[in-house]
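Record 1 of the preview.
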Amino acid sequence: MNSTNELKQKKAKKPNYFLYNFIKVTGLPVAWLAFRPKYHFVGKTQSNKIKGKAVAVSNHSGFFDPILLMLAFWRRNMRFWATQDFFDRKSTRWLFKYFFKAIPVNKENLKLETVRETITALKNDELVAIFPEGTVNTEHPDEILTFKVGAALMALKGDAPMISIYAPRRTSPWRRQIVLMDDPITLDEIMGRKATRQDLQAISAYLQEKEKRLMERYQELYDEKGKLRKTPKKKVESSEA
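->
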């Protein structure tokens, strides 16, 4: 795999976002009505204040999670990693490649093409959404699966901050979709020093723990029906790292 310096030497090519913007203008308002998302910012930074490149790190509880993130960053162009399977099927290839501008990723073997396209997007000051669980977590929606290192690796190579996001599974179409979002954080802040490739496992574990804390925060603030509690639920024990 090429080094980060070699990737930086390649001129960033800006993609054509005509079809992407078309589906965003025509489709996302419908999605907004369908999900009626409520974004809860547990930090100080709201999504419309986040400028420049960043890697959005989210749990993966449903197939529409990318749509929820696109709604959260309505004013920004957002790319997201999608399994290569969607690009191999004729029925979904056009939608994911040209409309969503998704970045294909092989779950078993991270390819150089995925790295290059992701770094190029970050160099263009875009947002890239990655779901480190690596799959839609339908069997254990109340748990956070072990994070893979892809998101941390892209943040390291792209010199980009990371944004932790948590979206609980919506069990009823009549229920509003709640999404919790934390402040951006850099890899150097996570490690307390200059982050290196050897730190990827530790960074991924940190992000997974951060995701668990967002899930617990959601359970404190909202009841089983997704309604805001009058009195926040008391934590049984601290989950601070």
